[in-house]
Amino acid sequence: MNHDQLRRVLPSGLIFIVIFLVVVALHWPLLRLPYYWDEAGYYIPAAYDFFRTGALIPYSTLTNAHPPMPSFYLALWWKLFGFSPLVTRVAVSAVSSLMFTGVWRLALRTTGQASVAAATVFLTALYPIVFVQSTLAHADIFAAAATVWGIAFLIDRTGVSDWLAAICFAVAALSKETAVVTPLALAVWAAFGEPRLQGRSGRAEEGRAVRSTALARAAKLLLPVLPLLCWYAYHRHKTGFLFGNPEYLRYNAQTTHQPLRIALALAHRLLHVTAHMNLFVPVLLMAGCLLLAPLEDEHGAQRRQIARLDQALFAVVLGTNVLLFSLVGGALLTRYLLPLYPLILLLCVSTFRRRLQMWPALVALSAAGFVAGIFVNPPYRFAPEDNLAYRDVIRLHQAAIRQITAHYSHDVILTAWPATDELTKPELGYVQQPIRVKAIDNFTFEQIEAAAQNPGDYSTAFLFSTKYDPPRLPMSLGPANEALDRRFFDFHVDLMPKEAAHLLNGQIAWQDYRKGQWAAVLTFNRVMDAKLMPPPSR
User: Are 524 and 402 in contact (CB under 8 A)?
Assistant: First the structure.
């Protein structure tokens, strides 16, 4: 069955429904988890503010000038089905399913093979980073879904599909501002790179027609900038800040342009798109397949490969995003690269099929590596949101907060973000009533020592690992690398509960560990300051 026949038999709507049901089923044990990290710190508060009051700019958290599309979408679901983590995560599952449907369409369009399209969707959905982000309410999954569809429409190379691509890219930019770099790069490519790769005609009239078409296409791809500029103008008018609060801008853009920092970030990003979370399995298999001669189909012709124009377009998207996120972004989070992983996996699967008869075995081997990556932590530092380690963080925080609500709910809790939000905002799913907190930046020696100088400011402490950094990691690069990470990427070492308890002159009332991460509740034998005492009951 060829590409056109398959599109008639299996419309995108049916593909979406099937994928959505599978995604919800695979993620069912995760759908009731309370909100995690940046969800709790920004995206859920921002959407909740809009849901309650219609405020486009959040007031219960610091504004980062992120565009409001995710807030619109989540608020609609909450209006229809109620405000809860389950509703939120099912809503995000629908967005990720839409992205997978776009991957199906893109793979089918570029390879003409339903088997390749199905395998690409299968691997994309199982890739640990994509798997986890498929139900987390970060803006990145919204931007990734719209970007993938934008690329899928752009591949069609018709006037109507170009307009549809521009709309998709505009939605992506209004979901996450950095997504605008993709249509901008593709506009430059459409105007200057693509016509050269296509080759010039000897006839002047045809040459002018090609240039005119290329410029028209480029102009359409510039249009997504306009709604984003309108949003920033509105944000500037309302807050006085163009790109969010000054601290956010400083951390994510103004301090990231040192040459050494860029080089280090670029090295990290290259690893993120070739090796991280067992991505090296399909990438190395693809490299091995490239050493083999292409196979012939039943008609004696070489099996179809992705067209050179499409491969070049993929390269523009990959290169631009890797470079952008080496220049901006204080944290090297892999979710920023979400639109890139389907493209990489499509290239891998297409190469498997073109050059090896037993190519489904390579897909199965890649899938096995991804499933292992979902459950097994790698032997190096990584963000817990890159696999199910984030679930361990949530479970640890839930257990610690249960101890606090059961025994210390009237105390002032010494802790750091995101627990400061988890304890003070019931809408995040951890407490039913707000609990007072004393905030510190982290649990380093310096921060704990400073807190020890003011013991009257708190009466209990909630400590936890702020990153995955267990001792004796096999692939630690040593003190020199740690020094660079401290300098450029906000790396720090948390004190363990026993060390912190000693420094704070307290004792461990509760602690737990899960796969290299931990949480602890500390108490103190001292007379409580009058200002910390709860008000008398009436």
Answer: no
- pLDDT number for residue 13: 86
For residue 228, count other CB atoms closer than 10 A to its CB: 17
CB-based burial label for 351 (10 Å; 0-12, 13-18, 19+): buried
Q: What burial letters (b/e) apply to 268-295, b meaning 16+ CB within 10 Å?
A: bbeebbeebbbbebbbebbeebeeeeee
3-state SS track over 308-340: HHHHHHHHHHHHHHHHHHHHCCCCCCHHHHCCH
pLDDT given for residue 535 in this prediction: 46
Helical pair 340-355 and 359-375, crossing angle rounded to 10 deg: 150
pLDDT for res 537: 38
Rounded to whole angstroms, the Cα distance separating 47 from 115 reads: 39
Asked if 45 and 58 touch (Cβ cutoff 8 Å), the reply is yes
pLDDT at position 105: 96
Rounded to whole angstroms, the Cα distance separating 538 from 536 reads 7
pLDDT at 328: 85
Answer for the pair 321, 409: CB distance below 8 angstroms, yes or no: no
Can you give the pLDDT at residue 63? 84
pLDDT at 10: 64
Q: Are 382 and 465 in contact (CB under 8 A)?
A: no
Task: Answer for the pair 87, 97: CB distance below 8 angstroms, yes or no.
Answer: no
pLDDT by residue (tens digit) across 481-531?
777 777 777 788 899 999 999 999 999 999 999 999 999 999 998 655 444
Tokens of 521: 């509740």
Q: Which pLDDT does position 481 carry in this prediction?
A: 73
State the pLDDT at residue 195: 83
What pLDDT is recorded for position 150?
A: 98
User: Would you say 136 and 92 are in contact if contact means Cβ atoms under 8 Å apart?
Assistant: yes
What's the CA gap between 423 and 403, in Å, rounded?
12
Cβ–Cβ under 8 Å, residues 366 and 161? no
Residues 6 or more apart in contact with residue 239 via CB below 8 angstroms: 57, 63, 65
* DSSP letter, residue 40: I
Task: Estimate to the nearest angstrom the gap between the alpha carbon of 347 and the chain centroid.
Answer: 21
Return the pLDDT at 249.
61
Residue-level pLDDT at 405: 97
Please check whether residue 521 is in contact with residue 363, taking contact to mean a CB–CB distance below 8 angstroms: no
H helices present in 467-533, as ranges: 479-489, 497-504
Distance CA 390, CA 42 (A): 17
d(CA 522, CA 461): 5
Which stretches of the chain drop beneath a pLDDT of 50? 201, 529-538
- Strands, E, within 315-459: which ranges? 413-416, 437-440
**Which among 461, 455, 454, 453 has a CA at the least distance from the CA of 437?**
461
Q: How far is CA 223 from the centre of its chain?
A: 25
The answer to whether 529 and 517 are in contact (CB under 8 A) is no
Distance CA 233, CA 227 (A): 10
Q: What are the beta bridge partners of residue 439?
A: 415
